[in-house]
Amino acid sequence: MKIFDTHCDALLKLQVAKRNTLFGGELLDFRHSTELDTNFERLQAGGVKVQFFAIFIHPEFPSDEKWQHALEQVDLFYSEILGKNPLIKHIKNWKDIDALQGDEIGAVLTLEGADAFGNDLTKLRHLYRLGVLSIGLTWNNANLCADGVGDPRGAGLTKLGKEVVQLNNEYHVFTDVSHLSLNGFWDVMELSKYPIASHSNARVLCDHPRNLNDEQIQAMFKNRGMIDVVFCPQFITNNSEPATISDLIRHVDHFCSLGGIRNIGIGSDFDGISSYVTDLTNASEFPNLINALQKQYSETEVEGFMYRNFLEHRPGV
């Protein structure tokens, strides 16, 4: 069964390793490095057909260095992921997914946090040209576009943030709400043609600010938004015991109970998490999730969660 995964942080790991070579460290080989949850061999073994790769810039970096960090990650996407793996194909527009051959894997470039371009929309347009197809306005911090879930002010979108959403609409690019403040979320609901929560779960089941409450969930479904369940244990259960696949599926069940059976997808957050769901520790173990879902849902429904729902909700469809 094909799998579309809408969030991983492999680019950040590749960048950190490359910078560490200045101090005697070694480059990571995307083809098979065991330090990468989403290396090529693991994507193949797990049946991943489309993998999203996030550009993420830590908010504590000086503002005048953030654009360079973003470009370094884009360069690694082109050189290490696309350049050294002929079976990985760059998805530059959503129709490219339909052209993937049987053994090919699509790679989508995304941006997690508008810090990379600051208030320079020329830089944003360069990112569109480089192939960025999904943009989250914030990480957990505040920036010039909006406040994130970790900022105590909790403000919504700025004028600039609203301009970015409108440009996303124009370019058929997702606006990602996974890290937005509550007020920012509602601003996006008013403006976005293509909302997505690339890696979020249900807050009623796990009271974490990164998760969505029921009102937000229903608004996403009403606006044809996708919610992609995330594998980070802290977003799955408040228990001290290790999170299980059954715990994760409870979030799928809840989304379905709110009418979202055709709006659910997968956003693993592999390579961005340091603890794991039992039996779901890297991309090669996706079949364990599929097998568990097939015990509760029909084959058609599970295919929806894994990839068909995304195909129906991608921009321009």
If you had to describe this structure to a student in words, what would you say it looks like?
37% of the residues lie in helices and 13% in strands. The protein is an alpha/beta fold and 317 residues long. The protein has one domain (3-313): Alpha-Beta Barrel (TIM Barrel). Strands 1, 2, 3, 4, 5, 6, 7, 8 and 9 form a 9-stranded parallel β-sheet that branches. The longest helix is centred in the first third of the chain and has 20 residues, at 63-82.
Attribute tags:
317 residues, alpha/beta, TIM Barrel, nine-stranded parallel beta sheet, 37% helix, 13% strand, Pept_M19, Diguanylate cyclase, metallodipeptidase activity, Metal_Hydrolase
Q: Alpha-carbon distance between the termini?
A: 22 Å
Number of domains: 1
User: Are there runs of 5+ residues with pLDDT below 50, and where?
Assistant: none
Share of helix, binned: 25-40%
* Largest sheet data: 9 strands, parallel
Strand content: 5-15%
Kindly provide the radius of gyration, computed on alpha-carbon positions and rounded to a whole number of angstroms: 18 Å
Name of the CATH homologous superfamily: Metal-dependent hydrolases
Number of strands: 9
Order of helices and strands: EHHEHEEHEHEHEHEHEHH
Shape: globular
GO biological process, one term: proteolysis
Protein name: Diguanylate cyclase
GO molecular function, one term: metallodipeptidase activity
InterPro entries: Metal_Hydrolase, Pept_M19
